[in-house]
Every structure is written in C-alpha cells, then in structure tokens.
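Lab notebook, design round three. We kept the backbone fixed and only want residue identities now. Task for the bench partner: fill in a sequence for the structure below.
Input structure tokens:
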C-alpha cells in the first residue's frame, strides 16, 4: 500500500539549485531515509503531566498531593491518604508547542498527547488503565529557515511518529511507621510504535496519529514514597524503572526513567472555606520529546469552598532546560451530589509552549 507520507515524484522531475546544478527530487527522499536511520535511536515519550485533571490544573504540582485514584499514575504511595473508595474516569489532550507551524506556515517540531483512563482505588490497593497516544513531528534534515524559498521549506525532510501505550496497573501501598508510606505500581504496557518519513509541506500531527505500527508488550514498575507530618507532606516517585522500549523497523522509543519530587502544605477549614493546599514539584530527570529535552518545575494551589461543593485550582510550570517559557494551568471541580464530582482543567501558554484541556468524572466516599 502506498505510504501517503512519502512524496513520490516522477524521475524526470528536476529543479535547479542556486549553484546551477540539476538535482533529482528523488534525492530528497533518499536523504530523508538516510537521516532516519542515523537518528533512529533518539527517544521520545510522554511527559509526566500527560495524565491527571487535578494535577494539570495545579501546574503539575501533585506528587505530594496525590490523594485520589490518579495516585496510581502520580504517586502510588498517595493511596493511603485518600478516601476509602475513589474512582476516576478522565480524558484530555496536551500539545507542545501550541501551534505546530511557524509564522510563515512552515511545520516545526511538535508533539501531542491524547489520553484517557480509568482508575479505582482503596487505601492500600489501586487498579488502573491508561491509554495514551503520543504523535510527533521531528526535523531530520535542513530546517525551514535554511532553504532558499517556500518550495525548499516544503521539501525539508521530517519524521512522523505515533506511539500508543495501553497501560494496565496494579498499585499497592505499605505503611512504614506513623509518618511514611511506600507504594508501587506494577504495569503491563502494550505499546504500538509507528514512524514514517515525509516532507514538511505534507506533515501534520493528524497524519502522524493515523500511522499503523508494530506492537509489543513489556512489564514495568513505578515506585513512590510519601511522608506526612501534620499538614506537611513530601513525596518522591520514580517511574519506568525498567525503561521499556518499543521498536518499529529502524526506529526505537524508550520510556526513560523519570524521577520527580514534591512538597505540599495544607491548612484546615475556616467557615465556608475548606482546606487550602499549596504545592511544588520538580523533575529530577530529563524527558526526551520531539521539541527537545524537558525538565519541569511547577507550583500550584487548590482550595475547596462551600463544604467541598466547589474546588478551584491553579498553577505554573516551567521547563528548566533552555529558555524559560512558563505554562499556566487552571482547573475547577463541581459536586453533582455528595461524593460525585466533575473535574476540568485548561493548560494555557504562548504559541511556543503547551496547551491542553481535560475532563474527569470522580466518585469518592
């Protein structure tokens, strides 16, 4: 079947370069294929903030806050501090940068993560399913600015990639004294990787997401700890202990080990104003993406009002690698009835930064 991402040109099609040499357009395809082989080991994966509506609304400051079923993703040790029974269904999307083309309309490196999941948790046990699709456009040849015209920009070789992860997890926790909890999530990950070469003028994240690839299955582990002293909590998590990898032809993606630490301080209730929580997180490792390595720090706050009928949250996240371009997050929760909430969040940034949204239905009692 013909690959719609690869430009096919008749052998007679030629163009003059600035030096007067006649170069077949077929060379662009050969150059793209060669560059893919050279760069095949470059890894890309989901960022930590791809999942979790409350977490994203707080700017990703959630490792020490995680007290609902999303702790199965954010910090398995957080299950011990949550409600007796908690269940969440959520879905959302995150894209970086917000606009996948520059001011001249030329495609630029970008990625998008679409997620949906279900998790149910008790104080010492959690079961979860998350499905993430990460679509990417990577530059593998001359950039748009290196050409001599719009035609050259449109012919710049790029790689399109799609990674679909289906993760089934079982989370357990264990108290270690009166102030410390350790937890772990055993994960069965079914990954499908697909990639193709193309030209910038025909590339899009939508086309990347339509690729069909090769599927394999891996077993992995996340571990976390949570310490609590009154209203102060501290947590540390390490994800992807075994660093599973997925391949498709010459392309390979590795889920690199991710470590993150967080601190949270919570107050008591005062009249109609419920608990107020202020938190901060910091990545201890880098995560590779199509736009380059990322290492985030974030801070945020969450407050409950009117007897926990309404929750409001906000936060800011910054990539500490390269230029600091903060991304703001905001979210809210509304109680439909006692113990049943609708959660929403929006991630906002400049054209150079992430944007996203998400919704969740959460039941807790």
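Proposed sequence:
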């Amino acid at each position: 079947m013909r690959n719609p991402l690869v430009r096919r040109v008749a052998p007679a099609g030629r163009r003059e370069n600035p030096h007067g040499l006649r170069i077949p357009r077929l060379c662009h395809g050969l150059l793209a294929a060669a560059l893919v082989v050279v760069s095949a080991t470059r890894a890309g994966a989901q960022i930590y903030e791809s999942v979790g509506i409350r977490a994203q609304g707080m700017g990703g400051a959630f490792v020490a806050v995680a007290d609902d079923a999303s702790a199965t993703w954010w910090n398995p040790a957080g299950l011990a501090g949550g409600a007796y029974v908690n269940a969440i269904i959520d879905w959302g999307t995150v894209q970086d940068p917000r606009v996948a083309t520059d001011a001249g309309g030329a495609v630029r490196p970008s990625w998008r993560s679409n997620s949906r999941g279900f998790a149910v948790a008790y104080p010492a046990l959690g079961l979860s399913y998350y499905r993430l699709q990460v679509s990417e456009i990577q530059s593998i040849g001359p950039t748009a600015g290196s050409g001599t015209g719009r035609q050259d920009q449109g012919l710049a070789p790029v790689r399109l990639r799609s990674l679909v992860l289906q993760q089934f997890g079982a989370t357990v926790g264990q108290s270690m004294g009166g102030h410390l909890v350790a937890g772990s999530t055993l994960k069965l990950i079914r990954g499908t990787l697909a990639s193709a070469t193309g030209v910038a003028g025909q590339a899009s994240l939508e086309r990347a997401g339509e690729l069909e690839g090769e599927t394999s299955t891996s077993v992995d582990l996340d571990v976390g700890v949570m310490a609590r002293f009154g209203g102060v909590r501290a947590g540390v998590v390490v994800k992807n202990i075994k660093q599973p990898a997925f391949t498709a032809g010459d392309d390979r993606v590795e889920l690199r080990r991710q470590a993150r630490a967080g601190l949270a301080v919570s107050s008591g209730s005062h009249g109609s104003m419920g608990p107020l929580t202020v938190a901060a997180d910091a990545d201890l490792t880098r995560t590779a993406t199509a736009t380059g390595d990322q290492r985030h720090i974030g801070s945020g706050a969450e407050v409950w009002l009117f007897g926990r009928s309404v929750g409001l949250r906000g936060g800011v996240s910054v990539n500490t690698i390269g230029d600091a371009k903060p991304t703001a997050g905001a979210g809210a929760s509304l109680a439909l009835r006692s113990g049943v909430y609708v959660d929403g969040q929006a991630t906002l940034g400049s054209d150079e930064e992430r944007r996203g949204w998400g919704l969740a239905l959460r039941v807790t009692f």
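Keep this in mind before ordering anything: Helices lie at 26-38, 53-57, 71-74, 150-154, 205-209.
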